C-alpha cells in the first residue's frame, strides 16, 4: 500500500502540527547543533509541497531520508527541544510540542539521540519485554574499502584521491524542492573529475566511493592515507538559507574559521558522522596531537597553496564566490600527511546553480579546472617551486 503524503504543516508559538492524507503509525525526532535544528522522521510517508515558519521555527527543509521515510528539518530561531508529540485518534495529524531551553540543555539533548512517538503496529506483540524500544537500521560493518586506482601507469606517478561527499544514509544538502540530493550531485562531479584526470595520463586517480554508500569522515581521509595519496579533494555542494547565494569555493584546514559562514559549514559537515543520533566518528586525542605536529603544518601549507591555484584555474569556466579560498576545521581534511581541500562546486539550494550542477557541461568545466590545477601543482612540486 502506498504511504501517506504530508499535506500541510501549521506552526504555532510552541507547537508544530503536521497533517497527512492517510494514517501514519509512528514518528521520531532528534536535535542537531551547528546550526540548531530539530529533525522529524516519518516512516511510510512521502513529502508534499509544504512550507511554513513562525514561532520558534525559522525555516523548514524537507526531503526523503530514504524511499519510504520523509524527513523534515526545522531550523530554530533559538534553542528548543521536543517535549512531546501526539497523534490524533485517526493518526492523520501529529502535534509536536516544543519548549525553549538553555544552550547547555540543548547540547545535552543532542547527545541523548532519538525520541520515538506513536505505537508501531504489532510492536507489543513482537517485543513485549522492551516497551518503547526501536531498531535503527545501520549500514552493516565492513572493512575499510581500498578503491581501484586508474590513470597513469607506474607507482611513481602522483596519486589523487577524489572524495564524493556524503552518501548512503547521509544525503547532505538538498535542492529547494527536495528532489535533488547533494550525495548524488557530488558523486557525478567526482566521477567527471576522475575521468578528466584519468584521460590526462599524468596522474593516478581513485574515488573514496563510486556508489551510494555511507563513509565516516575519518574513513575518507584514511583511504587516502592507506593509498599513500599525494592529494585529496573532497567534492561537495553548498547550501544556504539565502536562495540567492551562488558560486563555488574551496576550503582548507584551519582550527580557526575564516568567517562565520566557514564556521557554520564546518559544523554542518562535521555532523555527517552523526547517524540517527549516534556519533560514528570516533575522533580521539591522537588526532588532536597530530594536528600540532610539524608534518601537519607543512601539509596545511601545501593545501593552502593548491587551493589558491585551484581557484585560479577553475575561475576560467566556473563561477567562483568572491574570495573563494576559505578556512575551517573540517574533519575530512585532517589527514596529517596528505594535502587536502574541500571543493564546494556551487549551491544546490540556488535554482540557477542547481541547473549547472546537473549539467554535463558544468561538470566538465569543473573537472577541467581541477585537472589544470593538479597538473600545475605536481609540475611545481617536481621542479621544487
Automatic annotation (TrEMBL):
GO terms for cellular component: outer membrane-bounded periplasmic space. GO terms for molecular function: N-acetylmuramoyl-L-alanine amidase activity. Keywords: Hydrolase. InterPro entries: AMIN_dom, MurNAc-LAA_cat, N-acetylmuramoyl_amidase_3. It is an enzyme of class 3 (hydrolase). Pfam families: Amidase_3 (PF01520), AMIN (PF11741). Its EC number is 3.5.1.28. It catalyses: Hydrolyzes the link between N-acetylmuramoyl residues and L-amino acid residues in certain cell-wall glycopeptides. CDD domains: MurNAc-LAA (cd02696). One of its GO terms (biological process) is peptidoglycan catabolic process. Residues 221-375 form the MurNAc-LAA domain. It comes from the Bacteria. This is N-acetylmuramoyl-L-alanine amidase. The lineage of its organism: Bacteria, Pseudomonadati, Pseudomonadota, Alphaproteobacteria, Sphingomonadales.
Amino acid at each position: 500500500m502506498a504511504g501517506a503524503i504530508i499535506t500541510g504543516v501549521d506552526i504555532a508559538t510552541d507547537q508544530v502540527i503536521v497533517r497527512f492524507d492517510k494514517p501514519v503509525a509512528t514518528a521520531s525526532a532528534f536535535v542537531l547543533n551547528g546550526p540548531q535544528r530539530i529533525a522529524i522522521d516519518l516512516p511510510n510517508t512521502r513529502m508534499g509541497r509544504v512550507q511554513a515558519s513562525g514561532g520558534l521555527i525559522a525555516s523548514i527543509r524537507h526531503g526523503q531520508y530514504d524511499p519510504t521515510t520523509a524527513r523534515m528539518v526545522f531550523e530554530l530561531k533559538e534553542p528548543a527541544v521536543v517535549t512531546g508529540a501526539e497523534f490524533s485518534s485517526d493518526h492523520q495529524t501529529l502535534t509536536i510540542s516544543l519548549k525553549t531551553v538553555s544552550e547547555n540543555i540543548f547540547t545535552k539533548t543532542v547527545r541523548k539521540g532519538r525520541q520515538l512517538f506513536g505505537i508501531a503496529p504489532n510492536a507489543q506483540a513482537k517485543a513485549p519485554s522492551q516497551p518503547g524500544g526501536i531498531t535503527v537500521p545501520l549500514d552493516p560493518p565492513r572493512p575499510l574499502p581500498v578503491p581501484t586506482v586508474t590513470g597513469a601507469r607506474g607507482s611513481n606517478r602522483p596519486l589523487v584521491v577524489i572524495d564524493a561527499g556524503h552518501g548512503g544514509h547521509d544525503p547532505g544538502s538538498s535542492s529547494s524542492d527536495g528532489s535533488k540530493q547533494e550525495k548524488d550531485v557530488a558523486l557525478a562531479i567526482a566521477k567527471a573529475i576522475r575521468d578528466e584526470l584519468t584521460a590526462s595520463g599524468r596522474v593516478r586517480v581513485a574515488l573514496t566511493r563510486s556508489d551510494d554508500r555511507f563513509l565516516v569522515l575519518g574513513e575518507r581521509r584514511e583511504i587516502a592515507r592507506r593509498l599513500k595519496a599525494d592529494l585529496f579533494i573532497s567534492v561537495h555542494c553548498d547550501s544556504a538559507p539565502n536562495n540567492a547565494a551562488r558560486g563555488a569555493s574551496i576550503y582548507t584546514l584551519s582550527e580557526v574559521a575564516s568567517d562565520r559562514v566557514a564556521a557554520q559549514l564546518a559544523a554542518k559537515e562535521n555532523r555527517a558522522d552523526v547517524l540517527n543520533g549516534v556519533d560514528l566518528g570516533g575522533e580521539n586525542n591522537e588526532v588532536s596531537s597530530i594536528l600540532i605536529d610539524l608534518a601537519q603544518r607543512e601539509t596545511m601549507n601545501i593545501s593552502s597553496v593548491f587551493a589558491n591555484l585551484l581557484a585560479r584555474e577553475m575561475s576560467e569556466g566556473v563561477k567562483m564566490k568572491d574570495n573563494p579560498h576559505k578556512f575551517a576545521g573540517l574533519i575530512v581534511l585532517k589527514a596529517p600527511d596528505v594535502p587536502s581541500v574541500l571543493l564546494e562546486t556551487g549551491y544546490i539550494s540556488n535554482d540557477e546553480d542547481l541547473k549547472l550542477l546537473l549539467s554535463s557541461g558544468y561538470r566538465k568545466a569543473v573537472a577541467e579546472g581541477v585537472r589544470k590545477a593538479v597538473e600545475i601543482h605536481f609540475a611545481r612540486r617536481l621542479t621544487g617551486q
